[in-house]
Write a sequence for this structure.
C-alpha cells in the first residue's frame, strides 16, 4: 500500500514539475484535457475551443462561459454528466431557448473535444477562455 501511495505522489510531483495542471479528479480518472500554464492546451482540446467559437456559443453563454442569456457553463459543467452534456448540445433545450446542434457536422464531429474544453474551463485547469495549442 505504501508503495502505491509513493508512486502516486511521485507521479503527481512529476506532472506538477512539468507544468501540467493536476486536479483531484486526476487521481480517480483520466482527464479529457491537457493544460500547461492555464491556457496552453493539447490539440484535441484546441479543437473544442475552435468548435466553441465556430458555433458562436458565446452569444448566449458569454465569452468566458460565465453566462449571459444562457447559463454559466463554468457552473453547469461541474454537475452535468458527459451524457447529459451531449444530449443537451445535440437536442437543445428549446423550452429554455437553447438551440439544437444535432445537425451541425462540426459540433457533432467534435463533441468530445468541446466537452474537454468546457470541462477544463469548469474545473479551473483552463484559466482563460482563449487558449493556445501546446507546441
Amino acid at each position: 500500500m505504501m508503495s502505491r501511495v509513493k508512486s502516486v505522489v511521485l507521479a503527481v510531483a512529476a506532472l506538477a514539475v512539468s507544468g501540467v495542471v493536476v486536479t483531484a479528479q486526476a487521481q480517480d480518472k483520466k482527464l479529457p484535457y491537457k493544460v500547461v500554464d492555464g491556457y496552453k492546451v493539447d490539440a484535441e482540446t484546441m479543437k473544442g475551443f475552435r468548435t466553441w467559437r465556430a458555433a458562436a456559443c458565446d452569444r448566449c453563454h458569454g465569452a468566458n462561459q460565465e453566462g449571459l442569456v444562457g447559463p454559466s457553463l463554468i457552473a453547469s459543467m461541474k454537475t452535468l454528466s458527459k451524457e447529459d452534456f451531449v444530449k443537451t448540445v445535440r437536442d437543445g433545450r428549446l423550452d429554455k431557448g437553447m438551440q439544437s446542434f444535432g445537425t451541425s457536422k462540426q459540433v457533432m464531429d467534435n463533441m468530445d473535444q468541446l466537452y474537454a474544453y468546457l470541462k477544463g474551463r469548469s474545473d479551473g485547469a483552463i484559466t482563460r477562455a482563449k487558449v493556445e495549442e501546446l507546441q
Notes: The domain at 19-133 is CATH 1.10.760.10 (Cytochrome Bc1 Complex; Chain D, domain 2). The mean pLDDT is 86. DSSP finds eight helices and three strands in the chain. Residues 56 and 120 are 19 Å apart (CA to CA).
